[in-house]
Amino acid sequence: MKDTIISFVKSILLALVLAIIIRTFIFSVTEVSGRSMYPNFDTGDRLIVNRLGVWIRDVEKGEVIEFLSPDVKPNGKRDHFIKRVIGTAGDTVSLNDGKVYLNGEELKEDYIASDVETFPETDQSQWEVKEGEIFVLGDNRYNSDDGRRFGTVPTDTVKGIAVFRFIPFNKFGKIK
Fold first, then answer.
1. Which SS3 state, helix, strand or coil, does residue 11 take?
2. pLDDT at 154
3. Per the residue annotation, which of 10, 28, 36, 99 is the catalytic one?
4. How far apart are the C-alpha atoms of 176 and 172, rounded to whole Å?
């Protein structure tokens, strides 16, 4: 009986350690809060985020990522944001006449509605993305706190790449 209890406790501890390792270093679950990525993602959507991917390779243009907000709250914590990568190291992102330009070429954004326009939120309308940085925008340009306000984001604040949505069930599937 004693051996059975010890074996059971070891199994539970091993399962907990593995769960912590997986959650911390491989995959995590995040919930979308807000409408900055609407219509592709909405409040309450639950996503699986690949944490390991950002250790293995750089994030790529067009990917949806989770990262720490540049703004620190009074309690010292930072929100987790979900946004789309628009520019990576070496790129120049500019906004002109309601359109996004990447390295001087108009960016083809099939993930936003064709009538959506993108305007600067400050006096700045162009960003040089340096090594170790990315530039992000929300898909809902009319309701997104993104790079137009806070500029480029350090890549070391990226927590992972959104790879799968499991809630709501009618949108269940891999994130493209």
1. helix
2. 98
3. 36
4. 12
As a whole number of angstroms, the distance between CA 66 and CA 52 comes to 13
For 62-112, give the DSSP string. Answer: T-EEEEEEEEEPTTS-EEEEEEEEEE-TT-EEEEETTEEEETTEE---TTS
d(CA 136, CA 91): 12
3-class DSSP state of 49: strand
Check residue 20 and give its pLDDT: 84
Does 83 qualify as catalytic in the annotation?
yes
Low-confidence ranges of the chain (pLDDT < 70): none
In 3D, which of 88, 67, 79, 69 has the Cα closest to residue 161?
A: 67
Q: How far is CA 44 from CA 23, 25, 123, 161, 167, in A?
A: 20, 24, 33, 18, 8
- Burial of residue 11 (CB within 10 Å: 0-12, 13-18, 19+) is exposed
Angle at 35 between CA 62 and CA 69, to 5 degrees: 65
pLDDT at 53: 85
Sign (positive or negative) of CA dihedral 69, 20, 44, 49? positive
Q: One of 83, 125, 144, 174 is an active-site residue; which one?
A: 83
Q: How confident is the model at residue 129, as a pLDDT?
A: 98
Please give the single-letter amino acid code of residue 29.
V
pLDDT number for residue 97: 95
